[in-house]
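Session log. Operator J.P. requested a structure for one protein chain; no other inputs attached. Running the standard single-chain path with token output.
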Amino acid sequence: MTTTKAHKARVRCAVYTRKSSEEGLDQEFNSLDAQRDAAEAYIRSQAHEGWVCLPDRYDDGGFTGANMDRPALQQLLADIQADKVQAVISYKVDRLSRSLLDFAKMMELFDRHRVSFVSVTQLFNTATPMGRLVLHILLSFAQFERELISERTRDKIAAARRKGKWSGGMPLLGYDVDPRGSKLVVNKAEAVRARAIFALYLQYQALLPVVEELERRGWRTKAWTTRKGRARGGQPFTRTNLYHLLTRVAYVGKVRYRNEVHQGEHAGIVEPEVWSQVQALLRRHGRRDPVRVRSAAMLQGLLRCLPCNCRMSPTWVVGSAGTRYRYYVCSQTQRRGWQRCPSKSLSAAVIEKLVVAQVRALANDSDRLQEMIASFPAADTADVAPADEGPPLEVIREPAWDELSAEDRAAVLRRLVERVSYDGARGKVAVSFRPRGIRAFVKEATP
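Structure written below.
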């Protein structure tokens, strides 16, 4: 009988070297060469584990370890993401980075790609239990440092806002950033448009008509170029960004920090009386109550507008007698206006009753259920269905359905229904079922 030794899997190792200054790099054998020799010797000592040294050189001569702006390091990280490297060998930890935060970021990347890191002279190897323990300790300190930096940043922003200073971010329509400092200055041409938008809302007293009027005029949101030369803004107005514009206290010369409002350093461009009237109208019309709408909207997350290929969201209006009428509205319509969508809005009571009737008809047709299950591909067993919580699925075909809360009805429908498509142009509704949900229903209903 003959035996053969099992071959170790090949481990591709990259050597990273760095020197802060360029002094001595022109020598025939310099510091980078010495670091690489030590790393290659270590790799040779692990040849029995299948370690091999890649020929590519990752040498950063004349680069500080205080940041990650190093060409060879960036190439190494790119090769790691391309799965070309399985282990990184460095003479010391500080050759890879002198910043704990940067080191933590790199270790997270290494971990995602299952790459080990070895420091030759410090016996630091993340492929071993002790190395991983040391790594976790370092990462804990890095997390602590991140939290301290975040806390200091928040405190700095809070102090600046309380003094009325603009603390960065994208400026509003009607303002520019003073190039001499972090301060807002009035853009006279844009200020005229901002005031006109407030006047339009007082005229129409609704968001969508103003959105449609701004579309006709060709007006856009604030266009701005960052310090890095990136273009921002300049987008068509939607219901959402118009609402945000109308509620900004900056237009009356103030700044907001959380629930606090302070006098700002910049000048206001909208009369306080006009701004107050707009806020009163916005409050009177009200924003949707997300808790109450969600609890009564059985098809939330399921109903989609087929022509626009986007979701239909629950909303409501209050009649003259105080009665609340529920609807599902195409999100495209909410953002861009009624003329954008043939489906527009749909009575919640009508569509929910129709969908429940279709689901109930299927639930009471055992032959159709079996045919449907037989038609499901085997791959559909991986279909992701909501967690098996709430009332039994077979309650859909019993009188007890009417006694369920709106939340429980929605939970049952989400387990059985994958999608409800509504085509307002043709007046058609199509219900798609979840394979796992249907299988679970049949299993529950089988004695």
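Operator note: The chain has three domains: 11-142, 175-285, 294-307+348-445.
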